[in-house]
Amino acid sequence: MANLTTNAKARLRGVVFDMDGTLTVPVIDFAAMYRTVLGEDEYKRIKAESPTGIDILHHIESWSPDKQQKAYEIIADYEQQGIDKLQIMPGAVELCSFLDSKKIKRGLITRNVKKAIDIFHQRFGVIFSPALGREFRPYKPNPDPLLHICSAWDIQPNEVIMVGDSLKDDIACGKGAGAFTCLLDETGRYGPDDFSVSGLHPDFKVDSLSKIQNILETNFDLIP
């Protein structure tokens, strides 16, 4: 990931976060969810055809209403399990306090439901605004949610950075909107081949939220 300090620092006025696996500790077994929704054979076929990951919400949009309803019920059950075990990611509170000290805006975009956002806000007292769930259409990786937040803030996309743990959802959303992007990769899941295959190259890559403050201070003028 290139350091941006070779040129004049870009102005940064807002940070938009993903929620599951970024602001919260990952607890949802997405592979098990996909297998349950799709069936084992269909899961294996789609996984083989989608090296960057399965977009389950997009996939089921073409199903019949009855089949869609059953799929959404399965997804809701897994998401409820995630809510029951909800933990804030280490470093999230400190990073948000730093952003607050600099008066940098912070928003949230998730493919989870608004109920999960509300519980996150209530449980941890760290508020993001705007905070968009998948009720906002189209959802990530479409850039529209991020562009909506930029419009609500009256900020240009190139004055914002998108932070998330999904290359195909978060980085694609950020790149599509024209924002800076930071990939959170705690386990070393992504490598150069993933970036080449997807054509998505995050501006920064970190293995912990605690490392983002230094990236922001080093590479940007933090001017609200």
TrEMBL record:
Highest taxon of the lineage? Eukaryota
Q: Which residues form a coiled coil?
A: none
Note the SUPFAM superfamilies from the entry: HAD-like
Pfam families referenced in this protein's UniProt entry, alphabetically: Hydrolase
Question: What cellular component terms from Gene Ontology apply here?
Answer: chloroplast
Check the record and name the NCBIfam families matching this protein: HAD-SF-IA-v1
Q: What is this protein called?
A: Haloacid dehalogenase-like hydrolase domain-containing protein
